[in-house]
Structures are given as structure tokens and as C-alpha cells.
Write a structure and sequence with these properties.
This protein is an all-alpha fold and about 80 residues long. It contains 4 helices and no strands.
């Protein structure tokens, strides 16, 4: 936490929030691993298997999305 190192007192709340969140997760993990996390064990699957489409369709969609994002960034001047 660089802000805390600079002497910004408001960064203490962020640090306390991270510690509280980590503590809650540690305490809840045994319950979560038995219930929520155990329900999604399907092994190694791909997006094309999830959606039931060709691998190439997924690749084309991601490439088009990437090109579209770069074009939008260039258009906005970011």
C-alpha cells in the first residue's frame, strides 16, 4: 500500500478492508469448498465446449473483439 507509505491515513481503511476480506474468506473456505466450489468440477473444458460451437468460431469472435477494442481506443484517443 504505497498510499499508506506516503502517510495518507485514508489508506488504512483499504488495508483493513483487505485484511477483513481475507479473514472472512479463510473462515468461509471450508464451507465453500464443500458446497459451491464442489459443484463446478467438470475437469478441463473450453469455451467452445461450453457453448457447443466450433473452436474457430470462438477464435474469430475473440480476434474481432480485440480488433474492435483497439479501434475504439484509437478512435477515443486513449
Amino acid at each position: 500500500m504505497g498510499a499508506l507509505g506516503e502517510g495518507r491515513i485514508d489508506a488504512v481503511w483499504g488495508l483493513l478492508g483487505m485484511l477483513a476480506g481475507a479473514t472472512i474468506f479463510i473462515e468461509a473456505y471450508p464451507f465453500l469448498s464443500r458446497t459451491v466450489l464442489a459443484s463446478g468440477r467438470y475437469g478441463s473444458i473450453t469455451l467452445s465446449q461450453v457453448f457447443g460451437v466450433s473452436d474457430w468460431l470462438v477464435i474469430i469472435v475473440f480476434v474481432a473483439a480485440g480488433i474492435g477494442m483497439f479501434a475504439l481506443i484509437e478512435k477515443k484517443g486513449l
